[in-house]
Prior knowledge:
Layout: H1 13-25, E1 33-37, H2 42-51, E2 57-61
Parallel strand pairs: 1-2
Amino acid sequence: MQGFLTHVRVDRYPKARAQLGDWIDQGKLKNIEYMLEGIENAGVAFCDLFAGRNFDKTIVRISEE
Length: 65
């Protein structure tokens, strides 16, 4: 595994996006979402970040009523 800094080579963003997209499409890279529903769960989502209960990105979906 090798990490990279995204702000160093802005000129290579399009190529990087294309490669990452290909890896996701091929199943070589997984995009995991930790999702909660409703604004009432925003505080829970924030606390879960520090408690290690989420993976990858956290989303609080807010629906219009």
